[in-house]
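WARN no homologs supplied; continuing
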Amino acid sequence: MLNNPRSQAAIFIVISLVIISSGVLYFFYQRQAVEREIEVVQPEIVPVKDYVESCIRSTAEDGLTTIGLSGGYIIIPQNINNDPRAYLAAFAGGFRIPYWWHDGISAIPTEDFIRRQLESHIKSELKICINNFEPFSGIFEINELKEPAVDVQFNEADVSVSLNYPLEIIAKQGDFKALREKFSYTSPIRFRKVYELAKLIMERQIKDYFLERRTIDLISMDIDIPTTDIEADCNAKTWQLSSIREKLQNLVRVNIPYVRIRGTSYNPNLYVPNPKGRNTYAETYFGSHYVWDIGSDEKKHGSMKVAFSYENQPMEVYARPSENGIMRSNAQKGNEMLSFFCMQIWHFTYDIKYPVTAAIFDQAAEKSKAYQFSFAFKVDIDHNNPNRAAKGTTLFETEPDLPSEDYCNAVQNEITMFTVDNSTGDDLRNVGLTFVCGRYYCDIGSSDWLSFGAAAGMTKRLPYCVNGILKGAKEGYAESKMFIQTDVDGRSYVLAMNPVKEFQNYRVVKHLLSNPGIAKELAPNEKVSIMIKGKDAGYEGFAVYPKEADFPLKIPEKDAVYEVSINVIDEDGIIAGYIGDWKVSGESLKGADEIVFHVVEQGPASEDERFLFVSGLSSYSKNVPAPELK
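OK structure emitted
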């Protein structure tokens, strides 16, 4: 018997803790059970579902990449396109990045505007990617019952894409018939967090004039740039404004990249050349003057790097007083007793404008993918003072649709497009070319010999577009694309086509998880979907097995690493699969005529065990070989 009050109290506390812990565990497992409820998909249509969702992934990732390159745009509105002051012409091809601030105008694209642009891009690209369901032409008759409707959501940790696309799927052999409407893809890109940081930087730049102040400091500290001074000399001093502009361009180009954002990721121990011998960023002038506190949250932005750059783009510099690009000091004589004494006095003020590009790098994490977002704005100084006079705000509205036929017929400037084999450098004819500008697609024909066989390509008048895309397709080659600009007559571009190896022979073998050393063939009722995606390139391939149509699997003939995702299904759902990286060399592809894909099979299992197996497929796949070339 425990008569001690303290012992009884201790037992009561233990019992209470057990009850509370049981309750917590119960609710935890109830929540886990709800979260792991997965959608039931008829096994026969899993390959079709995977195929559509691979196209959603491809078009969404492509759109997010373009948005990241151009500061939130896929299609640049005409009011910006037609105003040379409103954008920065970047890269060799004339790619344009609209300014987020210029000449007193704030032009930060809203999150809703960016979302609607991405939705429009996915919808317009989707049908081209799906290509009338060609991989299933010998298996199913697939009828589109309604136009696809796309919904994009920028979430805290990812970007989710939902597609409502009613499809009627009818087996060409047998009596199978199904209706599928819902498709989805989630990109592990933290776009909202990146965008919020970009917007915060721009808003604080408008408020703090941080880069204007650093520019004014550079002018003040450089002895070669005259501001205010006096000198005992009878000879007038002169300066050339062009030399001062060149000096200032060099100062900005070298120093602006040292700007850091407090709360983001940067290395305070970075080596910095310093004549005083102090070698780390934190110990130099930069560490105390170039770290910008914008109020960013380290918990939210701690994995992000921010870089500012100026790449010797045109810089407007005007000095007062000056005449015809020459700046002169004022000579002053002494009185009668000091008539021999001369002084030179000068006081100059500067108006300066130049563009800066800010790039945010969200580093890859366990559940997120690396992403870069760049935007541009102007630094503006008036009479040696920051100039942020507000003159207006750009409105962001989606422009109304124009029929593609009308747009494609509205040709303006003549553009020459050359087509070459990227592996040999040889001219390549019979490449089918498509010109894309935002939501508009123009089939412009095939390349042929130019100049009596001196080159292969096409010279053609194209509609006006500043962020256009040229796409090329040819049998035996991967689809290629590049940015082009058609706003000026006479531009020329070279489209490089990468040869691919076509595999008519590919098969799938299974390895039991409990005994992976033994391989066996698929059962007659089992079907497979295979997706291959380049990790460092834009290639994506899709195949179904067993093959019931002449649809080869294409792999670019070059050294590369691919992400391979395989699902094996039967009437019960996914029973086997593979997720892993596949490193391939161009030489090994040339000598191969078959690919063997290996998958891991769970064996008999309950519904819960099946769910855990699919969730851990990437780990289980390490027990079987990567795809083999034979």
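Residues 5-37, 334-340 have pLDDT under 50 and may be disordered.
OK
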